[in-house]
Amino acid sequence: MVLEQLEQWAPDVIGLFQELGATGACEFIAETSHHSLSFLFSRAEFNEQVALQEARIQRLFGQQPTTFRNTELIYMNELAGHIAWMGRHRTILCEGLDRHLGARSPNHVYAPPPRSIPEGAASPRLLLKNYRLSDDIAFRFGDRNWREWPLSAERFAQWVNQVNGDGHVVNLFMDYETFGEHQWAETGIFGFLDALPEKVFDVNPGQNGFLTPSQVTAMHSPVGTYDVERPMSWADSERDLSAWLGNPLQDNAAAELYRLEPAVRRRHAEGDPYILEDWRKLTTSDHLYYMCTKYWADGDVHKYFSPYDSPYDAYINFMNVLDNLRQRAGE
Fold first, then answer.
1. What single string gives the DSSP state of each residue in 298-319?
2. Which end of the chain is flanked by fewer CB atoms within 10 Å, N or C?
């Protein structure tokens, strides 16, 4: 859920985030304002959405983000170069994939290859998700068939502590909805979270602690380069773009959506104050996610999140709304 929706529908949640920000131990990170795939289709729109999100974070929490996370952790060298060119973000969060790491650990700070950074720009630092430990919480925590169930905070803290000597940091990235939706209260997830900080400190006193992303990259230098030529993400077993793009429904919907951008901007400039925001709501990646036609485990996950009976229903509904926007834009 993007900040705009939280402001409208859950102001109490915004208040909790403001309390967290006031502690000084919480960092708010930049991303696209509408959780979009705009970097892949329109750099101008991407730049505007990032600026919109930064302005909202500044207004709500009094912070200027210096860490960036692209939608669904989508990342490649080209993104690092663009973020370096923008010049506002010193740190990027992304997935730590074995196929790019090889035998290396995700528990270090990395840098993009120098060839991807524009001349004269400062190279951002990369923090890589430890997907094994993250998924233990996000996906496996409530699974009674998992051999580690039930997972205690003490045991998880021991796993984290084992990184000492083979890494500087453990990055746990997961959706906010993990807590209370993916993992219901009945699983014990909230008690686990309550106990975890104390257990992390106690398992190795003086050696373990918690840092914000910016603090990590200020404290530790990159140990090497993380070279990602093709886009990757944190979604599905492939960890690529196939959760949102790749089948004819998704590709057609995305192409038609961004093809309409110039007409929408013209109509907005001519006096339709709502059309650009209405179009941007369609850029939210979830619409394409619902059109996924995968089978087996990944397909089950897509169906779980989708409000539609089928990917084809999702496509038809999307294109009907897009057609309405096309008429408003005079196309």
1. HHHHHHHH-SSSSHHHHHHHHH
2. N
For residue 229, give the nearest of 43, 107, 44, 79 by alpha carbon: 79
203-232 as b/e, with b when 16 or more CB fall inside 10 Å? beeeebeeebbbebbeebebeebbebeebb
pLDDT tens by residue, 136-190:
999 999 999 999 999 999 999 999 999 998 899 999 999 988 999 889 999 999 9
- Sign of torsion over alpha carbons 181, 22, 108, 229: positive
Rounded CA separation 132/201 (Å): 21
Task: Tell me 217's DSSP state.
Answer: H
- Report the Cα 12 to chain-centroid distance in Å: 23
pTM above 0.85, yes or no: yes
Contact 216, 107 (CB under 8 A): no
Is 233:94 a contact under the CB 8 Å cutoff?
no
Alpha carbon distance 203, 70 (integer Å): 33
> How distant, in Å, are the alpha carbons of 136, 190, 277, 316, 330 from that of 267?
48, 48, 12, 24, 8
Q: Which of 27, 45, 54, 72 is catalytic?
A: 72
Q: Is 277 a catalytic residue?
A: no
Q: Largest Cα–Cα distance in the chain?
A: 65
